[in-house]
Amino acid sequence: MDGQIPPPGIYPRYVKRGADILLVLLFLVCGGWIVLLLLTLLVRFFLGTPVIFRQERPGLNEKPFQLYKFRTMTDRRDADGNLLPDQERLTKAGLLLRKTSLDELPEIWNILRGEMSFIGPRPLLMRYLPYYTDEERKRALVRPGISGLAQVRGRNLLTWKKRFEADVEYVNNISLLLDVKIIFQTFAALFRTDEIKIGDSNLLLDFDVERKQEIEASGKK
Fold it and tell me: Is 3 inside any structural domain?
């Protein structure tokens, strides 16, 4: 996406980045470092090492970066040495981290590095990139976020179509007021655990799989 034009306005171009850094520093000064330390010990004790899960994700203008999260699953394997299904490796501690979104806290390091923002479209998987429409690719015109418009509208209950519509809506309407609104709605959403569904029967198809099926279905008509 080289040469793409970022959203116009003073806030997204000059203010948002500084606000992100300020919020990270305030979080750490106000005791956030203690929370990070306690969570590190919790993950180490209940889930093992490495404590941090790393994965390459697309960022601003789809440039790859390493995303950091607390691990939420063990490395349990079957008799042949293959990893067990995600549901069998997800412990009670990992489930708690996911439901409260505390597993996302290490992403403040990504914010300090300039790879993410507090608010923006969630960074998805690299393999999804070839399947975006031109409209959906607009989500990469801003830095990805820890939370975003799609997350406060339904967390993981939204369809892919609704998620991308929310992401593009955010890019088209980005402002300080909208970011503040999403921050407050994010804290409220943390207590709505009914919007977090875990288990194979509750998961959406991976986006690339869903889009392939759509392409195949349209080709048969």
Answer: no
